[in-house]
Amino acid sequence: MTTECTACKGTGTIILSEKECPDCKGSGKPKAISLDQLSEKDLGKLMGGGIKCTKCGGTGRISVTEPCKTCAGRGKFFTCTVCGRETVKGDLCESCAKKPLVHVLSAECDTRELEAGKVYEGKVQGHANFGVFVDLNPQIRGLIHSSNISFLPEIGDKIFVEVKNIAQNGNIELLPKSLKEFQLIEVEKQLPRRKTTELSKYLGKLVHLSGEVIQIKQTGGPTIFTISDEDGTVQCAAFEKAGERAYPEIKSETIVKVIGEPSMRNGAMQVEIRAMKQLWGGDATGIKEQIESAIDKRAEPHDIQFLVKSEVLEKLKPRMRNAAKLIRKAVFKSRPIIIRHHADADGITSAIAIERALLPLLREVGGSDADRHFYRRSPSKAPFYELEDVTKDLTFALEDQERFSQKMPLVVLMDNGATEEDMPAMKQAIIYGVEILVIDHHHPDGTIDSMVLEHVNPAYAGGDFGITTGMIGTEIARMINPDIVEEIKHLPAVSAVGDRSAAPEAELYKLLVADKYKPEDLKNMPQITLCATSWCPSTASTRWRN
Description:
13 helices; Chaperone, DNAj Protein, Chain A
């Protein structure tokens, strides 16, 4: 196996310094030109002043180099495919080359990975009058004829066998091998990596899928692993025994390689796992970086024009866009989202706006029931994030982490979270790995800003509490999902009336929906909103529709 030297980036040389090119004296152009040796193309370049010095390539400088000491000038490292030790060249180190190789077939391998003359590790499956059956993996079974064996191994015993012959009908003839010293080498099926969005093209066929494990759910039958890659997520099912955890060594947030068969189950794509293993080192890092880069691009918020003209909102827009991106990124990374909001009209309308934007996106990314697993909305009785709130949020989060191996959530505090009163609960949340985002309009004291991913507040754009959280939340919701504007564009007006805002923006938002809602309607809505949620304790998720 070969890996590129990171010290010289595969060139085999290290640049020590640069000096003036001796041929062109730093001009980048040749000192002398033989016209009779120039082609028609070169003559054209000469007329246009485009002929470059051949020694420096037109830069006027040349590099002073020395062979890379890390890789001895080779530009890459060779490592033994068996033990991983560095070798001068080739697949095996000197030690491993002297020992017989015993091949271990992965579960996904079939007879195409089997070679006559090679030695394999197998397990005794059964006895017959004419010989002993040996499983080389769950897909491949061979026979040691009774004439070739002088002892009767027990069922379940591991045994080394040489493949003597593979018949055209698939029958495999084996010979027992006794080895004192040997090297085990794993044989995997070599398949091109497929993305989750490509799986529908390969129904019933064996595919290779690599990604991050974001959820593990044990059912009464198989273990369900939710795998995320650059394009999306897919559920992968592995069966050991009914209700027994398959691949217990695989944990959440690890990068894995899956070999399996895609199929449609209950209207959704599912991969039946043949084999799965955790990836390490450069393989895992490469996949992780690809996923992170792709998600970062997909999480970019939509570019919108605000529903009303507002100098404060325009100045606040970068923070609002960052908040929208953080929320979208949490969805694409399948990080649970908890919206904690003040239990008044402003807090409820701001949270509802985000909720209406989130739900379609959650279902698109994680399936029809994703909102039940990755989203909760809860009102806070106090106008700040109190210890009672964080205790309940952590209880739910830790239970989900234990049962489903889910990540700790992103908590979005709306119409609260801006002051020192929120710090005790925030500190408690951060200890457990919870990330926090604040969207508020109460005057901030700056104490919590270093603890949160973003703090969107009109005070940071020259505004005050007259710009309500409902106004800010609605515009952020449109950045998350612009398709829901008709569902939520009345919410800023409701929050403005409920919070008695005297800001110019309040009148503009009221005018925006004046053809649909009279002033009396806007006055009544805050009361209806409060009554609709007053029954629900802060531990429960609330849903509010206009």
